[in-house]
Amino acid sequence: SQKIEQNSEALNIQEGKTATLTCNYTNYSPAYLQWYRQDPGRGPVFLLLIRENEKEKRKERLKVTFDTTLKQSLFHITASQPADSATYLCALGGYQKVTFGTGTKLQVIP
Amino acid sequence: DVKVTQSSRYLVKRTGEKVFLECVQDMDHENMFWYRQDPGLGLRLIYFSYDVKMKEKGDIPEGYSVSREKKERFSLILESASTNQTSMYLCASSLRLAGEYNEQFFGPGTRLTVL
Fold first, then answer.
1. Residues near A30 by beta carbon (within 8 Å), at least 6 away in sequence
2. Tens digits of per-residue pLDDT, B67-98?
3. Chain A to chain B, count of Cβ pairs less than 8 Å apart?
């Protein structure tokens, strides 16, 4: 069956460093992959989308890579700030709907 | 800005009650979704709708039904609430564009407790 794995352990990182979050998947061939941010008690907010034929996507301090051979996406936040502390969800895309991972909680320590 | 609103932030119901969760979006999106989110299980799709009066089962439709009579409104119905339906319920909407992959816009969520 399809499986999406994100680090269940929280990731603690010092302010100013680069945070790297991992999304691995099995038994799936997504057409695209999305990353969302979720703050406590709120709905997820879309950050980036990367298509299967793209290797890398950037948006300001965010960078996403997508390796369909390794079945993995990496999400990087450079020059991390305490305001980046949140849970980050990856979502694998099919036609009109996506399947979400369980998310990784990021804590940026001042 | 796209806005997705949900009828309640918090709801407490008794076992066996019929529960209605309402979701409204103001951006003329074709697609609407209902998810539940539980610790360790992430977001799981209950139902989605790609047009008025159309619905598709998601991954966990048992115990739920939906209604979409108007494009902007998507309702989730728990016919007879049970304690295992205690959860955070999230509604989302997205555009439906042929050949495009579209972000989902989420509402703030309804935390439902079934006693």
1. A52, A92, A93, A94
2. 999 999 999 999 999 999 999 999 999 987 65
3. 52
Which residue from A103, A108, A63 is spatially nearest to A87, judged by alpha carbons?
Answer: A103
Strand residue runs (E) in B1-115? 4-6, 10-13, 19-25, 31-38, 42-49, 56-57, 64-70, 73-78, 87-94, 105-106, 110-114
Token pair of A36, please?
């969302």
Is A10 within 8 Å of chain B by CB? no
HSE toward the beta carbon, residue B14, CA cutoff 13 A: 0
Residue B61 has a pLDDT of 97
- B43, A31: Cβ pair inside 8 Å? no
- Alpha-carbon distance B95 to B110, whole Å? 23
B64-70 vs B73-78, strand pairing mode: antiparallel
Chain A residues with CB-CB distance to B58 below 8 A: 97
Contact A32 B101 (CB under 8 A): yes
Residue type, A47: L
Question: In whole angstroms, what is the distance from residue A60 CA to residue A9 CA?
Answer: 26
Please give the structure tokens belonging to residue A59.
């948006």
Cα torsion B3, A22, A93, B59: sign: negative
DSSP reduced 3-state for A84: helix
Q: Tell me which H or E stretch contains B108.
A: none
> Per residue in A20-68, pLDDT tens?
999 999 988 888 899 999 999 999 999 999 988 899 999 999 999 999 9
What the block records as the tokens of B88 is 């955070």
